[in-house]
Automatic annotation (TrEMBL):
This is alpha-L-rhamnosidase. GO terms for molecular function: alpha-L-rhamnosidase activity. Residues 464-808 form the Alpha-L-rhamnosidase six-hairpin glycosidase domain. Residues 811-883 form the Alpha-L-rhamnosidase C-terminal domain. GO terms for biological process: carbohydrate metabolic process. The keyword Hydrolase applies. It comes from Mucilaginibacter mallensis. It comes from the Bacteria. Pfam families: Bac_rhamnosid, Bac_rhamnosid6H, Bac_rhamnosid_C, Bac_rhamnosid_N, Ig_Rha78A_N. The keyword Hydrolase applies. It catalyses: Hydrolysis of terminal non-reducing alpha-L-rhamnose residues in alpha-L-rhamnosides. InterPro entries: 6-hairpin_glycosidase_sf (IPR008928), 6hp_glycosidase-like_sf (IPR012341), Alpha_rhamnosid (IPR016007), Bac_rhamnosid6H (IPR035396), Bac_rhamnosid_C (IPR035398), Bac_rhamnosid_N (IPR013737), Ig-like_fold (IPR013783), Rhamnosid_concanavalin (IPR008902). The lineage of its organism: Bacteria, Pseudomonadati, Bacteroidota, Sphingobacteriia, Sphingobacteriales. Residues 359-458 form the Alpha-L-rhamnosidase concanavalin-like domain.
Length: 923
C-alpha cells in the first residue's frame, strides 16, 4: 500500500517536530517526537506561533493542495475534532511551513493541542497524531516570584581582577496536601543554574539559561515537573553559578567590560491539584541559601574548583538541616524584560574518549583527547581525603610536550578537584567550559589511564541537518574540522572561540559563515535570538556594536561587522523561509543604515571601516596582520561596497514587507553609491579596482557594482591575482573569503575554487590539517604567528567555504525561500574530484545529491522532498544522452524540460527519488 508520512512542527523561534506515518486514506500514527524546547513544549513566549509540517511519500510529484489545522484546549476535544481554539477548515494552499496561528487569542499558560491533515496531488492523508505547545508567562503580572540573591562575596571569595566567587546553593521546602494534577516551574538563574526537585535534576540542559545583555532581557526556562512532585513534603533546590552575569573580569577594564552584579534568581513553581485548586511557590526571602558548598569558584575563563569534602549531603531533599543557612536578600531585577528562551538549550551533545595519557614528569601527565573540542572532562578518581587533582587545558603542546598556553592570554583554564576519600569518585564541572585538545593532569593518585576520563562536548542542542563527503580525504577532513569548530562555538550565542579570555559574539565572524553553518546545524533559532541581542545592543542614535550582546563596549561604527545584522536576517529568510526576523528588525536595520549614512563623505563614499579585510595571509610567518599595502584592501572601498550591498538587501526587505516608498529610496541611494564607487575605484584602462587585491575586485563584482561590459575583465584580474600572484592560494581575509568560493564558481571557475580548497601548503585550510589541526585556526599562519591571536578553534576564516561545499560541490541551493524550489546544479568540472555525497534537511524534508563520475560516465542519485520541486542541471549535450532509472528522460512522468543552459540539459522535476545516468557527459 502506498505510504504518505506527515511531519508536523510548531515553529516560532523553536521547533517541535513530530514524525508521523500514514497509509493512503488511513489514520496516522506517531513515529517520532522531538521537542527542542527544553524537552517539553511548555513556556512558549508568544501567542501567535507558526505551524509547519513535512510530508513524506514513496510516490513522486507530491504537492500539497490543501490543509486543515485543528487546535483544541484539551486532547479530548482534539480527538473529537473540536477546534475550540482554532479550526482552519480546509484551506486551499501548497504552503506547509510557517503557517500563522489564527485562532482565539491565547493567554498565559494556555495548552494548545493540535493536528493537521493535508490533501495532495495524489491523495488525502489522515490526521496526524497530536502535538502540543503551551503559552508561557507573557505578562509581568504573571510573575509572583521575587528576585533573590546576595550582593556580597564571602571570606573565601575574591572580587577582583581575577575573580573567585563560589556557587550559591538555594533550597525551599514546601508541602502538598493532595495529589498534583500538573506542576510547572519557571526559572531564571543568573548567570547559570542547576535545578532539582526532591533531589532529582530537572532537564538535561547545561550552562542554562542562554546569555543576554541582562539589562535588556533575561530568559526564563520552563519545565513540566508533574511527575517529580510527591504528596507531602517536597524540596526545590537550585545552584547558581556566575556565567556571563557575574563578569569574568570585574573591576578589570570598566570602560570595556560590562558588569551586572552578583548571581540572582527568579523562580515560580505552579501546582494544580486534582480538584482544580492551585498553589504557587515562589522565590522570596523565606528560602535558605549558602555559598559554603563544594563549588568554591567558577569562572568561564579560569575554571571551576570543587571541594568534595564540602559536599552538602542531602541538601536538595527533605529532612536536611538548613538552620545554619542564611536568608537570601530581595534584590533588584537586572533590568531586562523577562522573556521565554526560544533557542535550543546548551547540552552535552557528544562524548570523546582520550587517545593517550603520557607522563611528562613525576606527578604530571599529559592527556590527548585526539580532537580539539569545547566542554569539559569527566574524571574518575580514587584516593585519600584531601588529595587534589588539577586539570589544566590547552589546544596545543610545546616542543617539550607540555601545554602551550601563551595563546590563552590570562585565562587560567584550570579545574581543581579535592577528593573526599572513601572510594571511587566521579566529577565534572558544571558552570564552566573549556576549549582544548590536551589536558595537563597534576596530583592524580597513582597513574591515570584513558579509562579514567571522558570528554563531554558542550554545545547548543540543535539538530544536525547536513551530511557532506567527497572522494578527496583532505576535503573531508577540512569539513570535519569546520564541523568541530562550529560545534565548539555555539554557546547560546555564536562566540568567536572557546578557549582564551575572549569567547565573545563578534558579529563579523558569522556574517556569511552562518549560511554555511545552517547546512550543518539547524541554527534558525540561535540566529533569530542573536538578532534580538544585536537589536538590544543598538544605541538610541542607531549605532550597532561589533560584539553583541555588548559585553565589550566596542562601537566602532564600521560597515562590515554590524552589517551582519542584515545579512543574517537575509539568511534566515532564504534558508528557512522565515520572514519574521525581517519584519521584527526592519525598523532597527533601517535606523542603523540611516546612522551610517552620516558617515558618507562629500564624494558619496562610506568612510567608516575599522578592521579592513581582517587577517589576510601575512608576508612573514610571525606576523598577525600583513604590513604589505599591496596585500591589504582599502577600507573605504570595503565599507562603500558593503553599504551598497546592504542597501540592496534593505530594498529587497522593503519589497517583501510591501513598503514601496522605502524600496524606492534604498534603490536610489544604492545607485548613487554605485556611481560614486565606480568613479573613485575603477581604473577603466586596467579594469582593476583600487590596488587590485582579490577582495577589492571581488566585492564589486559579486555585489553587482561592475558595469556589465567590464565584468569579464574584472574577473580576469581576480583570476590572475590568484593563479599568478598567489600561486593558486588564498589571499583574502575575513571579508573577501566570505564571497570568494561562490564568486569564483558563479563566474565560471569552480576549478580555481577547488584548487584553493584542496591545497595543503601555506596558506590554506589544508595546511592547517597538514599541521595537525582538528578545527579551523584564527590565522592562516596560526602555527607561527605571535601567540596573542592564534586561537586554534576559530571559524571566521571559513568564509563561504561550507556554503560552497553544499551549494556548489553538492549542488543543493534554494531557488525559493525555504527550498520550496531547489536548484540542483553541482560543479563537476573539477579534475581531482570524482564523487560528492551531500544531503540537507530543508524545512520541507531531506534533499540528497550523490554524484559520481568515472571514465566518461556520470551517475547522479537525487532525492527531492514532498511539496518541493527542483530545477536540475544535467551535464549532457542533449536530452537523448540522459537516462533516469534506466529509461529515457522523455519517459519520466511529471518532468518538464526547460531550455538548455551552457551545454546542460535543464529539467524541472517534482518530489521523489531519481537516478540519472549520462554517458560522455559534458562539464
Amino acid at each position: 500500500m502506498r505510504q504518505t508520512r506527515i511531519y508536523i512542527a510548531t515553529v516560532l523561534t523553536f521547533i517541535i517536530l513530530i514524525s508521523v506515518k500514514s497509509t493512503s486514506m488511513a489514520a496516522v500514527s506517531v513515529q517520532h517526537l522531538q521537542c527542542e524546547m527544553l524537552n517539553n513544549p511548555q513556556g512558549i513566549g508568544a501567542i501567535t506561533p507558526r505551524l509547519s509540517w513535512q510530508i513524506k511519500s514513496d510516490q513522486r510529484n507530491i504537492i500539497q493542495t490543501a490543509y486543515q489545522i485543528i487546535v483544541s484546549s484539551s486532547p479530548q476535544k482534539l480527538a473529537l475534532n473540536l477546534g475550540d481554539l482554532w479550526d482552519s477548515h480546509k484551506v486551499i494552499s501548497d504552503r506547509s511551513i510557517m503557517i500563522n496561528y489564527a485562532g482565539k487569542l491565547l493567554a498565559s499558560r494556555t495548552a494548545c493541542y493540535w493536528k493537521v491533515k493535508v490533501w495532495t496531488s495524489k491523495e488525502e492523508s489522515g490526521w496526524s497524531q497530536p502535538a502540543l505547545w503551551s503559552v508561557g508567562l507573557l505578562n509581568a503580572a504573571d510573575w509572583k516570584a521575587k528576585w533573590i540573591g546576595y550582593e556580597y562575596g564571602f571570606p573565601w571569595d575574591s572580587v577582583s581582577k581575577f575573580s573567585r566567587l563560589s556557587a550559591r546553593y538555594y533550597r525551599k521546602q514546601f508541602q502538598t496536601t493532595q495529589q498534583v494534577k500538573k506542576a510547572v516551574v519557571y526559572i531564571v538563574g543568573l548567570g547559570h543554574y542547576e535545578l532539582y526537585i526532591n533531589g532529582k535534576p530537572v532537564g538535561d540542559q547545561v550552562l542554562a539559561e542562554a546569555p543576554t545583555d541582562y539589562t535588556q532581557s533575561v530568559l526564563y526556562n520552563t519545565f513540566d515537573v508533574t511527575t517529580d512532585i510527591q504528596q507531602g513534603e517536597n524540596v526545590i533546590g537550585t545552584v547558581l553559578g556566575n556565567g556571563r552575569f557575574f563578569t569574568m573580569r570585574p573591576k578589570y577594564k570598566p570602560n570595556k567590560i560590562k558588569e551586572f552584579g552578583f548571581p540572582r534568581m527568579l523562580l515560580q513553581l505552579e501546582l494544580t491539584y486534582q480538584d482544580g485548586s492551585k498553589k504557587v511557590i515562589t522565590s522570596d526571602d523565606s528560602w535558605k541559601f549558602t555559598a559554603d558548598g563544594p563549588i568554591r569558584t567558577n569562572n568561564e575563563y579560569d575554571g571551576e574548583e570543587y571541594d568534595a569534602i564540602k559536599e552538602l549531603v542531602g541538601w536538595n531533599v527533605t529532612g536536611y538541616d538548613d538552620s545554619k543557612w542564611l536568608k537570601p536578600e530581595l534584590v533588584e531585577s537586572p533590568g531586562g524584560k523577562v522573556e521565554a528562551q526560544m533557542n535550543e538549550p546548551i547540552k552535552i551533545v557528544d562524548t570523546i574518549h582520550p587517545i593517550s595519557i603520557k607522563q611528562l614528569k613525576r606527578g604530571i601527565w599529559i592527556m590527548d583527547m585526539g580532537q580539539n573540542m569545547a566542554g569539559w572532562v569527566q574524571m574518575k578518581v580514587q584516593g585519600k581525603r584531601g588529595d587534589k587533582v588539577t586539570l589544566r587545558f590547552a589546544e596545543t603542546l610545546k616542543e617539550d610536550s607540555d601545554l602551550y598556553i601563551a595563546n590563552l592570554r590570562d585565562a587560567k583554564v584550570t579545574d581543581v578537584y579535592t577528593l573526599k576519600g572513601g572510594g571511587e569518585e566521579a566529577w565534572h564541572p558544571v558552570f564552566v567550559y573549556h576549549g582544548f585538545r590536551y589536558v595537563q593532569i597534576t596530583g592524580y593518585p597513582g597513574a591515570p589511564t584513558v579509562n579514567d576520563f571522558i570528554g563531554q562536548v558542550v554545545s547548543d542542542g540543535m539538530a544536525n541537518t547536513g551530511h557532506f563527503e567527497t572522494s578527496n580525504p583532505l576535503i573531508n577532513q577540512i569539513y570535519h574540522n569546520a564541523y568541530w569548530g562550529i560545534l565548539s562555538d555555539y554557546k547560546g550565542m555564536p562566540v568567536d572561540c572557546p578557549q582564551r579570555n575572549e569567547r565573545m559574539p563578534w558579529l563579523g565572524d558569522r556574517a556569511i559563515g552562518s549560511l554555511g553553518e545552517s547546512f550543518v546545524f539547524n541554527n534558525e533559532n540561535l540566529y533569530a535570538k542573536w538578532l534580538n541581542d544585536i537589536e538590544q545592543a543598538q544605541k538610541p542614535d542607531g549605532s550597532i556594536p561589533d560584539v553583541a550582546p555588548a559585553y565589550w563596549n566596542y562601537y566602532s561604527d564600521n560597515m562590515t561587522w554590524p552589517g551582519t545584522y542584515i545579512l543574517i536576517a537575509d539568511m534566515l529568510y532564504n534558508q528557512f523561509d522565515d520572514k519574521g526576523p525581517i519584519e521584527k528588525h526592519y525598523p532597527s536595520m533601517k535606523k542603523w543604515l540611516g546612522y551610517m549614512r552620516q558617515k558618507y563623505d562629500k564624494d558619496n563614499l562610506m568612510t567608516k571601516d575599522k578592521y579592513g579585510d581582517w587577517c589576510v595571509p601575512p608576508e612573514s610567518p610571525e606576523l598577525i596582520h600583513s604590513r604589505d599595502s599591496s596585500r591589504n584592501t582599502n577600507g573605504i572601498l570595503i565599507a562603500t561596497a558593503y553599504y551598497y550591498h546592504m542597501l540592496l538587501l534593505m530594498q529587497h526587505f522593503a519589497q517583501i514587507l510591501n513598503r514601496p516608498a522605502d524600496a524606492q529610496q534604498f534603490a536610489a541611494q544604492a545607485m548613487q553609491t554605485k556611481n560614486a564607487f565606480k568613479q573613485k575605484f575603477l581604473d577603466k584602462k586596467t579594469f582593476q579596482y583600487d590596488n587590485n587585491t582579490v577582495t577589492a575586485n571581488l566585492l564589486p563584482l559579486y555585489f553587482g557594482m561592475v558595469p556589465a561590459e567590464d565584468r569579464k575583465a574584472v574577473f580576469n584580474n581576480i583570476v590572475d591575482k590568484i593563479t599568478i600572484d598567489a600561486k593558486s592560494h588564498i589571499s583574502t581575509g575575513v571579508i573577501g573569503t566570505q564571497w570568494l568560493m561562490r564568486g569564483l564558481t558563479d563566474f565560471g571557475r569552480p576549478d580555481i575554487a577547488y584548487h584553493i580548497a584542496a591545497n595543503d601548503d601555506y596558506p590554506s585550510w589544508g595546511y592547517m590539517v597538514k599541521r595537525g589541526a582538528t578545527t579551523i585556526w584564527e590565522l592562516w599562519n596560526g602555527d607561527t604567528a605571535a601567540p596573542a591571536m592564534n586561537s586554534r578553534n576559530h571559524i571566521m576564516l571559513l568564509g563561504d567555504l561550507i556554503a560552497w561545499f553544499y551549494q556548489d560541490l553538492g549542488g543543493i541551493k534554494a531557488d525559493e525561500p525555504g527550498f520550496k524550489t531547489i536548484i540542483m546544479k553541482p560543479s563537476i568540472a573539477i579534475n581531482r574530484l570524482d564523487n560528492v555525497n551531500a544531503s540537507y534537511n530543508t524545512p520541507y524534508g531531506l534533499v540528497k545529491s550523490d554524484w559520481k563520475k568515472q571514465a566518461g560516465h556520470f551517475d547522479w542519485a537525487i532525492t527531492i522532498p514532498a511539496n518541493s520541486k527542483a530545477i536540475v542541471y544535467l551535464p549532457a549535450g542533449s536530452v537523448n544522452d540522459v537516462k533516469c532509472d534506466g529509461k529515457s528522460l522523455s519517459a519520466l512522468s511529471g518532468a518538464k524540460q526547460l531550455p538548455d543552459v551552457n551545454g546542460k540539459v535543464k529539467v524541472e522535476i517534482g518530489s521523489g527519488d531519481y537516478h540519472f545516468e549520462i554517458n560522455n557527459y559534458g562539464k
